[in-house]
Design a protein that fits this description.
The complex is a heterodimer. Chain A is of the alpha/beta class. Chain A is 31% helix and 30% strand. In chain A, strands 1, 2, 3, 4, 5 and 6 form a 6-stranded mixed sheet that branches. In chain A, helix 8 crosses helix 9 (304-328) and helix 10 crosses helix 11 (344-350). Chain A is globular and about 90 Å long. In chain B, 78% of the residues lie in helices and 0% in strands. Chain B is globular. Classes of the chains: A alpha/beta, B mainly alpha. The interface between A and B is medium-sized, with 23 and 26 residues.
């Protein structure tokens, strides 16, 4: 009898358990992306766009209706972000939940007015924001970016993040800049590039990048897509893309090389107390498109000329980016990082003065290409 | 041979006891002191210091088989001084229990249950611990063995998932080092190895007198904890970088938060990791709770342990609710370190010296 009672009581545990913090998933307003803007008004200087998921409009789910837009953007203004988030509750019944946030879009104007450090401090403090959220900058207003209809994905915010995943397809795409990395760069006190996004014929398009200065934590300039390519060569991020060569300087005789592998090493050298940097680029490429019909790839030495010209193109791109960075005195090329790794003693003594050293740093560039093939067929 | 059969449960006991909050907070504490990418060397140095300290404790306990520190202290330094020593040790175990569970409550509060009051989280933990402790040391050892694989599995999983996020440049330069800073770091890493001093308590029920088995038990336990710490340090530095470690409150959890695989399907691993980690906190609490209860009981010569058990639980609970916030909690941590010095180094050393005197008198 007593045993039976014990079993009965124990079984009750199965029915009586509950969770204090339970949240019905249907009641959450999942946010996919946020956009931050700056307003020219006295009181509510910030505006924040939250991209909510509208589960009822997702096709393929049980309750889903086709035809509706599966997301809804709410733009609200306020003088701080937490206030804006709480004000969302005045307009929507589902409290915003940021645990599955994909992208943050910042507008140029915002970064001109406010330092990034202060802007993101709230988002770093809150535990709901993940370190893997992708960060973007735009010259348009960020609420417009989040309103662009996505092409393949369901949500603009997801499409944005997925775009940077293509960094191994094109030289002009920078790898995803994650929220955690932004925080890392800021704590380390280094300058960095935020990928830029814009609108092209009603579609989202990745453009170059915005330079964030380590001195002001604000936007200090822009890089074009081509310059992003040069930057990627320097920071060893190239994992695909192409090098186009204009032979004999005429646009008709083009040869396009596909990058198969690329590796950059940065070697700081100290001679007589003077620092210089040797940049060595090694890459293997393949002939992908050729307008010079007379070339015979079965003849030995066919690649010599291409190799030389390709190396020249890349070298010029790299030199261009270095000259921009040195002019701005902003080291987003990671040269300082490599100096601190490879010449720690020098770095220890001179890192206070790095800005000046960097601006006059002699950099020797050495590009070495290997042409490994020409594809499956060569029409001749 | 008898000793060999006993050694595995004891090794597991030590490992489960030693690993606790350190794995989550230590990277930040060390980074703020050392601040260079090779700070994991400090962990190894801390482990060596801990091992030497553990051997000192063993040399003391070796002389008195099947007795705990609470038995020998009154014998060696006189009844009242001995009781004082015991009380200091009991205070230390209670304080460390309270500190550990409060840190856990803060983390649970931040990452898992923001609406659940802290007292509920703490109460559930203390009550279940009370029940486990009341069933005696053999059952505690069994419990530790039951959960040990889960703990290891969680650590392994976190390691495997984080490896892809490591950036090797964060870990360099390895060979360039500022030795003085590394030594300063030992001061904080050493405390993450506390737990081996419970040898003084375990010796009451296990015959730990021979050099070889005990040295290997201590070596394996401290060595494997050291390995896990170094692994987590390398992961933490590699994923988050030194400068970030200085400003993140709970680096290991943030590291788990950085894990993401394409799509929605694998995110929020930190929640899974926390479940595994709470078990390590529970085992640490159990070990210290048991020591506190035993020590208090031996000091006041009690018969019924149930009342003592309840009192200890209540004291731990109240102490753990004392700090108002996380900053205050961490500042209590420094006071706790002084108490650790007293019970880890001062008490064993004094008793050890007195043991010679006693021998000479005989």
């Amino acid at each position: 009898m007593k045993k039976g009672l014990l079993v009965f009581i124990s079984l009750q545990l199965l029915f009586l358990t509950s969770c204090w913090d339970s949240n019905e998933i249907e009641d959450l307003g999942m946010i996919m992306g946020i956009g931050l803007d700056y307003n020219e008004s006295d009181e509510d200087i910030f505006s924040m766009t939250n991209q909510y998921v509208v589960p009822n409009n997702i096709e393929g789910t049980q309750i889903g209706r086709s035809g509706g837009i599966p997301y809804q953007n709410l733009t609200l203004t306020g003088s701080n972000f937490f206030q804006i988030i709480r004000e969302n509750s005045l307009e929507t019944d589902r409290p915003p939940n940021y645990t599955h946030l994909k992208s943050i879009v910042l507008s140029e104007k915002l970064l001109k007015e406010e330092p990034l450090k202060q802007l993101i401090s709230f988002f770093l403090r809150d535990h709901e924001f993940r370190r893997t959220v992708a960060v973007f900058i735009t010259k348009e207003s960020s609420s417009d970016i989040l309103a662009v209809e996505p092409t393949k994905e369901m949500f603009p915010a997801v499409q944005l993040k997925e775009l940077t995943q293509n960094h191994d397809r094109s030289l002009y795409i920078q790898d995803t800049l994650k929220f955690g990395e932004v925080s890392k760069k800021i704590t380390e006190g280094s300058s960095f590039i935020i990928p830029e996004v814009g609108i092209n014929k009603g579609r989202l398009r990745l453009l170059g990048g915005g330079i964030i200065s380590n001195k002001t934590e604000q936007i200090a300039g822009w890089l074009t897509p081509q310059e992003i390519g040069g930057l990627k060569w320097i920071t060893n991020e190239v994992s695909g893309g192409l090098v186009a060569i204009k032979e004999k300087n005429s646009p008709e005789d083009q040869a396009v090389l596909e990058i198969m592998k690329a590796n950059t090493t940065i070697e700081p050298v100290i001679k007589g107390g003077q620092l210089s940097v040797q940049l060595k680029v090694k890459s293997s490429l393949r002939l992908a498109e050729d307008w010079e019909i007379k070339r015979d790839v079965f003849q030995e030495g066919w690649e010599d000329q291409l190799k030389e010209q390709g190396e020249k193109v890349v070298k010029e791109e790299i030199e261009h980016v270095i000259s921009i960075a040195q002019e701005q005195k902003l080291d987003y090329l990671e040269l300082g990082m490599w100096t601190s790794i490879k010449e720690p003693a020098y770095w220890q003594n001179n890192h206070q003065d790095w800005e000046r050293i960097f601006a006059q740093l002699p950099v020797t560039i050495d590009v070495d290409f290997t042409l490994t093939g020409y594809g499956t067929q060569d029409i001749n | 041979m008898q000793n060999n059969q006993h050694s595995l449960p004891i090794i597991i006991f030590f490992i489960s006891t030693i690993i606790g909050v350190g794995i989550v907070t230590l990277p930040r504490e060390t980074a703020s002191v050392v601040g260079q990418p090779n700070m994991w060397i400090s962990v190894i140095l801390g482990g060596i210091v801990a091992f030497i300290n553990a051997l000192l404790i063993f040399m003391l306990m070796k002389k008195y088989p099947l007795k705990t520190v609470f038995d020998i202290a009154p014998e060696l330094v006189g009844k009242w001084f001995g009781k004082l020593f015991n009380l200091v040790f009991v205070c230390y175990t209670i304080a460390i229990s309270a500190y550990v569970i409060r840190t856990m409550a803060e983390i649970v509060n931040y990452y898992l249950l923001d609406k659940t009051p802290k007292i509920v989280v703490l109460l559930v933990l203390v009550l279940s611990c009370m029940y486990l402790v009341s069933s005696g040391l053999p059952n505690i050892l069994l419990f530790f063995q039951l959960y040990f694989p889960i703990i290891l599995f969680m650590f392994l999983l976190l390691t495997l998932l984080s490896i892809k996020n490591i950036e090797p440049t964060h870990l360099r330069p390895i060979l360039y080092m500022d030795g003085i800073d590394l030594l300063k770091g030992v001061n904080s890493t050493f405390f993450s190895f506390v737990g081996y001093e419970l040898l003084m308590v375990l010796s009451g029920e296990h015959r730990l007198t021979r050099w070889k088995p005990v040295a290997s038990i201590l070596g394996i336990s401290i060595g494997s904890v050291c390995f896990i710490y170094v692994l987590f340090f390398i992961l933490n530095i590699g994923v988050l970088s030194i400068e970030e470690l200085k400003v993140i409150t709970f680096p290991t959890i943030e590291m788990a938060k950085a894990i993401e695989f394409q799509g929605f399907f694998f995110e929020r691993f930190e929640l899974l990791f926390l479940f595994g980690w709470i078990i390590t906190i529970f085992t640490t609490l159990t070990a210290y709770y048991y020591s506190a209860m035993l020590g208090f009981c031996k000091t006041v010569n009690c018969k019924k342990t149930f009342l003592i058990n309840a009192i200890i639980g209540l004291v731990i609970l109240i102490l753990s609710l004392l700090p108002s916030g996380i900053t205050e909690l961490f500042s209590y941590g420094t006071y706790l370190n002084y108490l650790s010095y007293a019970s880890l180094i001062a008490i064993p050393l004094l008793l050890f010296l007195f043991s010679f005197k006693k021998g000479a008198m005989k």
